[in-house]
Each structure stands twice: as C-alpha cells, then as structure tokens.
Design goal:
13 helices, Rossmann fold, globular, 4-stranded antiparallel β-sheet, 17 strands
C-alpha cells in the first residue's frame, strides 16, 4: 500500500488507529502540546475574531435564515477532538460577545467515535448549541470553518526523486516485518501537484505530497456558502518545503512528547496506532486549493501576530489576579519566537464577504 494509505490507517482506523485509542491525545499526559493545552486564552481570542467575522457576514447578508433568536451562524470546528477548544470559544463568547453567542449553531467534525462520544460532556452547559457531531463537514456552511492543527495530521504520499524520475514510497511486508520499498507513482496527481507549486526535487531528495490536505481545503471551500475558513498549522511555502533544507522530508512521529530518532529508521512504521504521525504543511498548495474552491486568501501570519492583533497583550495586562499569572505564562508559550507563536501559522480565507482588514490580520502578512 502507499505510505498515505498506511498512515491513514495508523492514525484513523476506528478500532486500532491512534486517534481512536483515546478521547484526547494532547496535553501533559499526551504525546504533544497544542495551543488549546495552554488554557482558555486561545479560545477566548478566537471568539473575538469569530465575533468580528459574524458582524462582517451579517453586513454581507449571510448567516442563514433569521429566526426568533436571530440569524443562525454556523461555527464549524474540524478535527474538534472532544470539543475543548469550541467550549472555550463558547464560554468567552458568552462573557464578551453575547449577541454572537446567541446566534451560534455549533458543528463539531471529528473522525474518532471515542472523541465524539465525549463532546457533550466536555461542552457541558454549552451542549445546547451543538447542532451536529459528525465525521464530515456539514453540507452547507454560512459562518466560519476553523481547524487547529488538522492539515499536518492528514496522511501524505511519500516520494523520492531518482535519476530516472519520480518514485513513490510504499509499505510492504518483508519476513514478517513492515518495510518500505520504492515503486512507480500511484497517481499522476503527485507529479502534477509538484509542478503546480513549482517544486523542483533533486535526485536523492525525499518529500511529502499531501493530496488529502489540498482536497480537504477544496471540499471545505465548496461547502462554505458565505464566510471564512481559518486554518492554524505549521509548515512552509513550497519553495522552502521542497528544498535542500528538507531533502530528507519532514514526516516524523511523537510519543510521550519525544520526537522519533531518525537514525533508528522510519518511526512512522513502528508501533502503528501508538504514535502521532505528522508532516509539515505546504502552504503554497493550500493557497492554490483554496483558490480553486472560490476562496480568497486574506492573509497568512505567524500565530503570535494573529493573537497580538486580537488584543492578547492588552488582555493579559488587564488581569492582575493570581489567575492572571497563569495566563501570562500561557501568553509566553503562545507568542514566544521558536515556540507555538512562530511555529504555527494562521491562514484566513474568505468567500462572498468583503470589508476592512480583520483584527487578527492587522499586522499584515508577517511570517517568520
């Protein structure tokens, strides 16, 4: 099978997959940290951005059909896990943006049945806002679709350039053990993708081609009738990703907050279903996929600048309580260079919505 097929099974098989094995994989007791693990401040700032987006959509005449409680606003979290981030968003919206909170129609998209089963309990008193909990995006969305570290967890094809041309990496069984072998590309779309993003691989260079990530963005764009798509993830543009710096590829695994040791062989073959498997996102390919789906890329910024544009520093300065100390420590992790603040990027797309620059993009397209 292709490496993409193997990784998809290792991560998402409903019985043996990594994400099926627990309702939550991040945090101190998990294998990696995300911004959500730093406390509710991340969700609080996202709520501020989503409230502004809701106002823009209302001006544009969107947000579904008006009802007794106001026009419905679809808030769709993809790769929602057990719903912690959406809970933080709803909690902050209730405190700071009550009109926005009133209009939210929440959709949680998650492939793991175990994580979906925990969502109502995690949402608690906000569970009444939950309109759907499914493995796929809603058919039609007027509002916001957002995903925090989804694309890096979608299974990529692995390729290598040889003197005779492009080859693909497959997974095979050899003497009762898993092993890799090279063969002809499984689809012409791999070479077409590399050509579209301007990648020029030299002989001996390995790379990931994430057709699934590009297709997910195209699908989200088709389902978005009016509103925004917000993607938070780590990666590079194609010129940096497909370069000598990353000539061995970026695919890696994490377990117990420790990355694999590559000298011990491909960690993604070891202990399938027990390790997180991830690769860097090609933002050039994601931007092209969005354009193909009728989306306009409004901006791409480091997470630090996105959150600072939403007033993170001011919120921290206002809080002098003992709890505020914990929030200031969370601030350091969310925005410090070299940490989540510069590693993670925020891409914001729009469809059928105009208006001034969003607050989260007020620093412009600043990427490090």
């Amino acid at each position: 099978m292709t490496a993409a097929e193997f990784i998809d099974a290792a991560l998402y098989d409903e019985t043996f997959g990594y994400y099926a094995g627990a309702g939550q994989r991040s945090g101190r007791e998990g294998d990696f940290f995300t911004s959500v693990d730093m406390g509710p401040l991340f969700g609080e700032l996202l709520a501020s951005q989503f409230a502004e987006m809701r106002d823009r959509i209302l001006v544009a005449g969107g947000c579904g059909s008006p009802g007794a409680a106001g026009p419905a606003f679809d808030l769709v979290e993809a790769a929602a896990g057990n719903g912690r981030l959406s809970r933080d968003v709803l909690e902050a919206a209730e405190r700071h943006h009550p009109e926005f909170r009133r209009d939210i129609r929440l959709h949680l998209v998650e492939r793991s049945p175990r994580a979906r089963a925990a969502q109502v309990a995690v949402l608690g008193r906000h569970a009444a806002a939950l309109a759907s909990s499914e493995a796929d995006l809603p058919e039609s969305v007027s509002g916001v679709i957002y995903a925090n570290e989804l694309l890096d967890a979608l299974p990529p094809h692995l390729v290598v350039m040889r003197e005779g041309g492009l080859r693909e990496v497959y997974v095979d069984a050899c003497d009762g053990r898993l092993a890799t072998r090279e063969g002809p590309p499984s689809t012409s779309r791999l070479a077409e993708y590399l050509a579209a993003v301007g990648a020029r691989l030299e002989p001996g260079w390995f790379a990931e081609v994430n057709l699934a990530a590009a297709e997910w963005v195209r699908d989200a764009g088709r389902r978005l009738v009016r509103g925004y798509l917000v993607l938070i993830d780590y990666g590079h543009d194609a010129a940096a990703l497909y370069s000598e710096t990353n000539a061995t590829g970026t695919l890696t695994t994490y377990r117990g907050h420790a990355a694999e040791r590559r000298e011990e062989g491909p960690g993604w073959l070891a202990e399938p279903g027990e390790r997180d498997i991830t690769s860097h996102v090609d933002f050039t390919g994601i931007a092209l996929a969005g354009r193909e789906a009728g989306l306009e890329l409004l901006g791409a910024v480091d997470q630090a600048y996105f959150l600072l544009g939403l007033g993170l520093a001011e919120r921290i300065a206002e809080d002098r309580s003992a709890e505020g100390l914990a929030r200031r420590l969370a601030l350091k992790t969310l925005v410090m260079p070299g940490g989540l603040g510069s590693t993670l990027k925020v891409l914001v797309f729009a469809k059928s919505v105009d208006g001034p620059r969003l607050r989260g993009l007020s620093f412009g397209g600043r990427l490090t």
